[in-house]
Each structure stands twice: as structure tokens, then as C-alpha cells.
């Protein structure tokens, strides 16, 4: 079920410059925060995406995006 009063078209509700990415863009997590509730483990982005502390997402159209953080044992290579 879609979230009420949230649109996904680029720039439709966003007054930021440059406009925040739309909810269906691959960089949707780069949108600015409109509401942040770390005590509850979620944040609402300008594009209507609910971002959870485990990196899972709920898109405005009701789609669920599974958490996508790196595995705990994964390492990043360091240039020397």
C-alpha cells in the first residue's frame, strides 16, 4: 500500500538545489533527511523513502528493499 501524500516523480516535492534523487533512482539514499528517529531506527528522506538503520528501505509505492550493508567480515582494501 503506497504511503499517503508522497510522490515519486523527480523534484515534485523537493525544493532543494540540486533536487534530491527520486525514490526510484539508484542513488535514492542521497536525498536529504526530513525526519530522523534514531531511537526508533528509521529516517524519512525528502523523496518519501523510509530508511531503516539496518539499511533496509520502504519505498513510497510500498516496495521493500532488503538491507544492503556489507557482511560483518568483509574488508575494504587499503592502498599503501
Structure characterization notes:
This protein is mostly beta strands. It has strands at 33-37, 42-45, 50-52, 57-58, 64-65. The chain has a 5-stranded antiparallel β-sheet with strand order 1-2-3-4-5, with no helix packed on it. The radius of gyration is 14 Å and the shape is globular. The model is unreliable at 1-11 (pLDDT under 50).
The class by helix and strand makeup works out as: mainly beta
Which regions have little confidence, pLDDT < 50, spanning 5+ residues?
1-11
Q: What is the count of helical runs?
A: 0
Please state how the strands of the largest beta sheet are arranged side by side.
Answer: 1-2-3-4-5
Strand content: 15-25%
Cα gyration radius (Å): 14 Å
Inertia-based shape: globular
Largest β sheet strand count, sense and barrel closure = 5 strands, antiparallel
The chain-level mean pLDDT equals 81
**End-to-end CA span:** 50 Å
- Percent of residues in helices comes to under 10%
The strand count comes to 5
Order of helices and strands: EEEEE
Short description:
0% of the residues lie in helices and 20% in strands. With 80 residues, the chain is mostly beta strands.
Task: Give me the secondary-structure topology.
Elements: E1 33-37, E2 42-45, E3 50-52, E4 57-58, E5 64-65
Antiparallel strand pairs: 1-2, 2-3, 3-4, 4-5
Descriptive tags:
single chain; 80 residues; mainly beta; 5-stranded antiparallel beta sheet; 0% helix; globular; disordered N terminus
